[in-house]
Design a protein that fits this description.
heterodimer, A: Rossmann fold, 4-stranded antiparallel beta sheet, 8 helices, B: 5-stranded mixed beta sheet, 13 helices, 5 strands, 7% strand
C-alpha cells in the first residue's frame, strides 16, 4: 500500500470481481492533496473499474474506498459531494446549453443564488467557455465537450477530481490546454486521479504513475525521477508489461 | 447489380445473425407475438354471456317461459321478476344489464337498458329485437316495442369511446416520457452523471417521474383542447375531477413504466414490450370488449392490468353514469406504489452494480 499521511483518497485492499474474473484485485493506494496520480495499463487492466469504484459507480467486492475519511458507498452523499468525475461513463446532458448545464450541475451540488451564478461565471472564465455558453453541448467539438465536462466536475470545488482518459481523441493543442487546466487545479490543492493510455501525458502531468496489469498494481513510477522523460517511462512501462505477461 | 445484391444479402444475413444472437430478444418477440394473436383474437368480438343478466317481467307464464328460453339460448342470463318496480330497482342498482316488461293487456314490450356500455347495449338490442319479432310471430300480434336508456347513440358513444381512448393516450405518453426517455438516459449514460451527484435517489426518482408526468399531462391537455373543436370530443362535465384523475393515472402508470425502463435498460426490448403491452391493454383491458362479457381467463388477465381500472374510472368520470369505484383507484395506487418502490430499488442497484 502506498502510505501517505493526510491522504484525501485512500483505497484499502480494494477488489472487484465480474464472475470468475477479478477486474481489480487487492489494490491499495493513498493520494495526497494536490497530487496528480496516473493509472497506466493495457485495455482491460482494471483502470476504469478502479475509477468507477472511487466514483461510487461500482461497489467493491473487497476492501473500501475512503474520500477524506468518508467511505464511498451508494448511500454516502457526503463522499459524492467531495468528488468531481470526468468520464465517458457520465457524459453531460447533450440537449442542454453549456450555461444550462452549469446551472443544473451547480444546483445538484447544492449551489444556488449568487453563489451559483459566481461559480458558473468563474467556471466559464477559467475554462474559456464564454463564447459557447449559449450552444448546446451535443454540437460542441470533442475537446470543447471535455472542457465543459471538467468545468462541470469542478463547479462545486471538489477536493478530488477523477478523470477517466480525459484527453482521448483530442488534438495536441487542446490536450496541452487541458493539461494546463489540470495542473492549475493540482496547484490549488485538488487531488487528481486519472487513467490514460498516453505515456507522454503521464510523464508530463503525473507526480506518480501506477501500472496496472490484470487488476493489480504492479509498479509505481515517478516521472519526475525520470526527468519527465516519456521515452524512459515508455521503456519502464513495456518492460513491466512484458515481465507480467511472462509471469 | 450482382455486387449490390451480394452486399444486400450480406447485410441482411448480418442483421438476422445479430437478431438471433440476442436470443432473449428473439424469445421475447415470439412470446409477445403469440400473446398478441391469442388475446386479441379472443377479445375482438363482443359475445354476450350469462354474466350479462336481463330482467323479465310478464304475467303470461307461457310467454315468460318462451322469453327465458330465447334469451338463455342466446347465452344471456335471465331473471324473472314478480313486479316491474323490483326489476327497475335492480336495473338502477346495476344488477341487470337490461329489463324487459311485457304488458298484460296490450301486445307491447318495454325494454330499458342499463346504459353503461354502448357496445353491450348494441348487442343486447339486436338480441331483444330479434326475440320480440319471434314473439310477435308466435302470438300473431303486432308488438309495440319501446326502448329506453340505450346508450348506443352518437353523443353517448362519442363520450364512451373518448373515455376508452384517453387512458391509452395517457399510457402512450408516459411510455415515451417516463419510459423511453429513461431508457435512452441509461443507454447514453447521462443517467450515471446524475447518479454520481450527491442527490438522494428518492429525489432523482421523483424528478424523473415528475418531469415525465408534467410533460405528458401538458401534451395530453393541449391535444385534448385541440380535439374539442376539431374532432368533437366531449368537454368533461366535471373538469377538476377529470383532470385530477388524468394526473393520478399518469403518476401511477408512469411509475410502472419508469421501473420497466430502468429494469430493461435497452431501447429495443423496452419499445417492443411497451407497444405490445399497450395493444394488449386496449383489447383485453375492457376498452373494446366489455368486461362483463369476457371469458373467465380474460377477466383474470384484465383484472391484472392497470388498463381495466383506468378505463372504468375514466368512464365513470366522463360519462357520469356511475360513481368512481374506490377499489379501482386503490388498485391503480398500488400499481403506482409498487412501481415507485421497485424503480427506487433499481436506481440503487444501478449505482452499486454499474
Amino acid at each position: 500500500m502506498t502510505e501517505c499521511a493526510g491522504a484525501v483518497v485512500r483505497m484499502e485492499r480494494v477488489g472487484k470481481r465480474f464472475g470468475a474474473l477479478w477486474a481489480v484485485h487487492d489494490v491499495s493506494l493513498a493520494l495526497a492533496p494536490g497530487a496528480i496520480t496516473g493509472l497506466l495499463g493495457l485495455n482491460g487492466a482494471g483502470k476504469t473499474t478502479l475509477i468507477r469504484m472511487c466514483a461510487g459507480l461500482l461497489r467493491p467486492d473487497t476492501g473500501r474506498v475512503l474520500i477524506a475519511g468518508e467511505t464511498q458507498t451508494s448511500d454516502n452523499l457526503r463522499a459524492r459531494a467531495l468528488i468531481g468525475v470526468v468520464s465517458a461513463d457520465a457524459p453531460p446532458l447533450g440537449e442542454l446549453t453549456v450555461a444550462q448545464l452549469l446551472q443544473v450541475r451547480g444546483a445538484l451540488y447544492g449551489l444556488h443564488g449568487a453563489a451559483l451564478a459566481a461559480a458558473c461565471a468563474a467556471a466559464a472564465e477559467e475554462y474559456e467557455l464564454h463564447a459557447f455558453l449559449a450552444r448546446r453541448v451535443q454540437v460542441l467539438s470533442t475537446g470543447m465537450r471535455q472542457r465543459v465536462a471538467i468545468a462541470c466536475a469542478m463547479l462545486h470545488a471538489p477536493r478530488v477530481l477523477l478523470l477517466d482518459e480525459p484527453t482521448v481523441g483530442l488534438d495536441p493543442d487542446v490536450r496541452a490546454h487541458l493539461w494546463g487546466c489540470l495542473r492549475a487545479l493540482a496547484q490549488r490543492g485538488v487531488t487528481l486521479l486519472l487513467t490514460t493510455h498516453y505515456l507522454e501525458e503521464a510523464a508530463r502531468l503525473c507526480d506518480l504513475a501506477h501500472l496496472m496489469v490484470h487488476g493489480r498494481l504492479v509498479m509505481s513510477i515517478s516521472p519526475a525521477g525520470m526527468d519527465g522523460s516519456a521515452a524512459r517511462l515508455e521503456r519502464a512501462y513495456f518492460d513491466a508489461v512484458q515481465h507480467e505477461r511472462i509471469a | 447489380m450482382t455486387a449490390a445484391l451480394r452486399q444486400l444479402a450480406a447485410l441482411i444475413r448480418a442483421y438476422i445473425y445479430a437478431w438471433c444472437v440476442s436470443w432473449h430478444h428473439a424469445v421475447l418477440s415470439i412470446a409477445v407475438a403469440v400473446a398478441y394473436l391469442a388475446v386479441i383474437n379472443q377479445s375482438f368480438v363482443v359475445t354476450l354471456t350469462r354474466r350479462v343478466v336481463v330482467g323479465v317481467y310478464t304475467k303470461d307464464a307461457d310467454i315468460g317461459r318462451r322469453i327465458r328460453e330465447d334469451l338463455t339460448g342466446k347465452g344471456l342470463g335471465v331473471v324473472a321478476y314478480d313486479t316491474p318496480a323490483a326489476m327497475w330497482a335492480a336495473l338502477s342498482n346495476g344488477l341487470l344489464a337490461a329489463g324487459m316488461e311485457l304488458a298484460t293487456n296490450t301486445p307491447s314490450a318495454a325494454v330499458r337498458f342499463g346504459g353503461c356500455n354502448p357496445l353491450m347495449d348494441r348487442e343486447m338490442a339486436n338480441v331483444l329485437l330479434e326475440m320480440t319479432a319471434r314473439l310477435a310471430t308466435h302470438t300473431g300480434s303486432r308488438y309495440q316495442l319501446s326502448l329506453q336508456g340505450n346508450s348506443y347513440v352518437p353523443d353517448r358513444t362519442r363520450a364512451f369511446v373518448t373515455a376508452n381512448l384517453v387512458p391509452f393516450l395517457l399510457l402512450s405518453l408516459v411510455i415515451v416520457n417516463c419510459g423511453i426517455v429513461q431508457v435512452m438516459a441509461v443507454e447514453n449514460k447521462s443517467m450515471c452523471g446524475f447518479l454520481l451527484t450527491p442527490v438522494p435517489r428518492a429525489v432523482l426518482y421523483a424528478a424523473q417521474l415528475g418531469s415525465g408526468v408534467i410533460v405528458s399531462l401538458a401534451v395530453f391537455l393541449l391535444a385534448y383542447a385541440v380535439c374539442i373543436p376539431l374532432a368533437g370530443v366531449p368537454v368533461p362535465a366535471a373538469p377538476v375531477r377529470w383532470l385530477a384523475l388524468c394526473l393520478f393515472q399518469l403518476v401511477c402508470t408512469g411509475a410502472v413504466y419508469l421501473y420497466i425502463a430502468l429494469a430493461m435498460r435497452r431501447y429495443i426490448p423496452f419499445a417492443q414490450f411497451s407497444i405490445v403491452s399497450i395493444t394488449l391493454f386496449i383489447f383485453a383491458g375492457g376498452g373494446v370488449t366489455p368486461f362483463e362479457v369476457m371469458p373467465q381467463w380474460e377477466r383474470v388477465f384484465a383484472s391484472c392490468t392497470p388498463a381495466l381500472y383506468m378505463i372504468r374510472s375514466m368512464r365513470a368520470v366522463m360519462l357520469g353514469t356511475e360513481a368512481v369505484r374506490l377499489n379501482d383507484l386503490a388498485v391503480l395506487a398500488m400499481w403506482g406504489i409498487a412501481g415507485s418502490v421497485l424503480a427506487h430499488q433499481r436506481l440503487r442497484r444501478m449505482v452499486v452494480s454499474g
